[in-house]
Structures are given as structure tokens and as C-alpha cells.
């Protein structure tokens, strides 16, 4: 007996479950779907709360489940240290990647002095950006299921075109942790073009630029659409540039101009008050010429701050200029024009995406550069999610006349002698794609060959991002130069890389899917999904405990060596305090909980960092003493 599903929200028969499109944004996130009757993409507005879901996660003090979205955003002022925002900026990043940006966040990001995934500390609990992104995706999924009255298990998720492999893999992991089968990771500009309806007519041929400036990321892409085929000619951008940086510029201006008390830089609640006021000013000045508000410090004293549109434009001008520089590079990479040609004649449209494009200066700068008025006719907050829903509809087989081709945003290659990067798949190569190169051994009798995979545009691998490595073993012992090793890269439609190495004389081979060093393995993600139904906390804790113990043992080794070599530069009290904290770490290592280990490590790092800085200064002074500068 056959069963027929009926969608209670639409009143229609439903042969297959709905596939949703999700825009997982830095500031806001959305979920959309294509209505089975109208065939139009719609952003889901559950219970009248609006289609936009703030990308904010709050952890209640009572230990209950996290609060996500509109309700969580209310805690940015009242409980900032338990309220996480802009987590997308942390996806696939190490603490070293964040640099000075880490200190600008209202919550605690842990520096474990490694290249591992950053951790966010909320009192004595620690979370990864993947787990936090999964919380946001769970909220989007729940809203979709509530509004559509049907299970939602499959999704298309968008990412900035400039996201690297680590960030794409982290996004996929987050989706799967949220219980979603991620059918495709799609570049946001490609989704935006679909939302604007470009390319849905197979007879249409157009070339468009998509300028996407969101809360935390920026990218620009040049797309060519022919016979229903979307081809990304080039892409450029910055994964750490967006509306958040506009806010930061306002904060810095107010701090310098109005002499705000130091507490506005040290007190998390006052920091958030200042940041939110700057965001309010940015939005207000998009429609008005002057902005005034009052900031209240911990003592109840008010400080009036003001900002004019002219001042705001001057503050953000350098940031907008950086986006135009990226536009210029994207046009050059696309080989769209020669020096004697006008850009405006080569582009059929310039599409604006992202809430930050509402800023008048942005609109004017983009329109001026491309030589034509930019198209902002669609809601810039919704356009990416709507395009993702159309892509989901394509994958569901409902639109058979549209094909998407994307490009890889950064060069992929391997390390060769001397620490050089040998490119295998150049930047802006169309995906999916396959490329390879032949190598040999450099030492007589060499039986193993380490293959280290990197991503980036610099000549030295030390200046690029390492994605992973593996060893091809079992090579027949021969004189150097005789073995022939083919190394092949296969980049799939999601931008995930598989690498295969084959020694042709012996047919020895090794094939591995390169997992970004910050992502989770498929097995780990699958186990976490199962644990979400059974005993997630216990299983996740077991894996993270091993990572914490390894990092703690490394820290103990470093601190012990440091104090042994530099005892003459440390006071007795400092040595005593350090030894006591070292014992705290050792004690935590004997336990079976991860968070106490990370807490003890964090406290040891905070304690010893001033010593290390002082000793470094002493070493520099001693090295310079008595030397003449000629």
C-alpha cells in the first residue's frame, strides 16, 4: 500500500521531502524553500518573527539548552560573555589566524598556542565554532519544520566564494551535526544570481558581477551565464571584511573623539553597548545625515556621542576602497576587458548582496567602479537564501535546464624541495576538476614519499595554508630520479579535495580525502549525529579529552623548559605561582573531564604570558647591548 504525504502548510501533496536553502551568515542567517505550487522561492518567516535569524547563540547560566536567534541577541548587552556572535568568522580558523581580531570579540577565545581549531570559553565550558554553527542551523531547521509542518532533513548551504577548504568542510560538518544532509555547498554569489532570476531562461546569455558585502565577509564574483550554465569566471574577496568592520571604525572614532572611560574597553557589557550603538549609527545614517545617542558607563554617567554621514563615510572609506580593489582584481582575473574597453559595456548587470550594501557610500562606489547603477531591487538580506532554495530545487530535479559551474578560490598544490609550492590546481579553476603532475625521489633508495598539500598564492609553503599530508610508502628502492610518482588532485563540486599518489613502476598507490586540519572527520561527524539521539555528551567528551590532554602535555613541556632556562629572570613569587599552576594542570590531566584541563591550561597561559614577554624584551636588550648601528 502506497503512502502519500500532505504538506499541511501548503495543502499540497508532497512526493518528496522539501530541500531547503540556507544562508548561514556572520550577522544573520535565513532558511528558504521553493513553494511547490507557485514555484517561487520564499524566505521562511516562522510565527511572524521575521525571516532573519540573528547568528547569535546564548548559553543560559542555569545550564539549559542554548538560546539561538532573536531571543539570544537580547543577551548581547546583559550577558555578553555567555553570548556568542560572528561565529562564522571563526569557522576553520586557528587562534593565529585571528590575530588582533580575537581581542575585539565580547567573549573569550582561547589561545592554546597551536594551529588547531579555536575554542570559545563560556565560564568552564568550551565550544568549537562548528558546534556553535550547528546550533544556529538547528534553529533554522526547527523554524522550517514548524512553518512547513513537515520534516526537513536535506539542505543546500551557502558560503562566501573566498572560503577555503577548511572553512567549507567546517560548514558541511556543522550542517551534519545539525542533522542535515548537506547536498551541496554553494558559493553565495552564484546563489544570488539565481535569486535575481538570471540564467533561468536557457536562451539567455549574460555576464554579471555579484558584489556581496555582509556582516563579516566580502566577496565579488564575475559570472557568465550561457544556455542555462552558470560559469564563475573569477572570484576575489576578504573573509575578514564586512559590516562588523564598519562598526569597529565607528567605535574607534568615538573612543578617540569623546574620551570614553577605559571601562568601555575592558567591561564586556560596556563593550557590547558601544558596539551595538555603532551598529545603530551605521543603519541610521543610511537614511539620515546625523546620529546622536547616549552611552551609560558602569557608574551611571552618560556620554553623548554623535556621528554625521560625512564622518561615517570618511571612516569607512578605506574599507570600501579595499572592496573596490578586490573588484578590480576580479575583473582582471576574468580577462573581461582590455585597457581600451569600457567595463560597463561588458557587464549586463551588477548585483548587490548583503546587508552592508545598504550603506549609500557602498552603492555609490560600486556603481561608479562598474560604470552602471548597481541592482539592489531584491532584499539584500534574503537574496542568498532565496538562491540557495532555487539550487535545492535544481538538485531535487525540478529544474533540469540549469547547470552550475563554480571555481576554486585559491591555488592548490604540494610542497617540493626547498619548501616551494608546486601548483596543481590553479586559482579560479572550474570545479569539479582533476589535475595531476609527475614527481620522483630525491634520495637513493628512498622508499617513502611525504606529500604535503597546501592552499594559497605565495611561492613558499610557509606562507600558505597547509591542508594535510600523507605518506606514499612501499616505493621500490631505486636510485634517485628513477621512480615515477603521479600525484592527482580531484576537486569535487563542494570544493573538497581528494589526493591520489601512484608509483607507476610498482603500481603502489595511496588515495586519501584531504580533511582540513580544523574540520571533523566523517566518522566523527556521524558519531556525533548518533550521539545527539543517544549520548552525545559522553562520546564528544571522549574525543575532545584526548585533544585536550595532548595540548596540555605540550604546554607543560614548554613551560617547564622556559622556567628552567630563565629562572634568573623570574621572581620567587612568580616561580612559586607557576609551579602551583603547573600542578593544577597535572591534576586536571588525571581526571576524565576536558573542560577542567582547558581551564587549567588557559590559566597557566595567562599567568606565564607576561613572563615570556618580559624575558623576550630582556633578550633583545642583551643582544643589542654594545652594538653599533652602521
List key phrases describing it:
single chain; 630 residues; alpha+beta; Nucleotidyltransferase, domain 5; Substrate Binding Domain Of DNAk, Chain A, domain 1; Substrate Binding Domain Of Dnak, Chain:A, Domain 2; 6-stranded mixed β-sheet; 16 helices; disordered N terminus
Write the layout of secondary structure elements.
Layout: E1 5-7, E2 12-14, E3 19-23, E4 28-34, E5 41-43, E6 53-54, E7 56-58, E8 67-68, H1 70-73, H2 75-78, E9 83-85, H3 95-98, E10 108-110, E11 119-122, E12 125-127, H4 129-148, E13 154-159, H5 165-177, E14 181-187, H6 188-195, E15 205-213, E16 218-226, E17 229-238, H7 243-258, H8 263-266, H9 268-284, E18 290-296, E19 302-308, H10 309-333, E20 349-353, H11 360-370, H12 383-395, E21 403-407, E22 412-416, E23 420-425, E24 430-431, E25 433-439, E26 448-455, E27 465-473, E28 485-491, E29 497-503, E30 508-513, H13 522-533, H14 536-565, H15 572-589, H16 594-624
Parallel strand pairs: 3-13, 13-14, 15-20, 17-21
Antiparallel strand pairs: 1-2, 3-4, 4-5, 4-6, 7-8, 7-9, 10-11, 11-12, 15-16, 16-17, 18-19, 21-24, 22-23, 22-26, 25-28, 26-27, 28-29, 29-30
Helix pairs in contact: 4-5, 6-12, 7-9, 7-10, 10-11, 13-14, 14-15, 14-16, 15-16
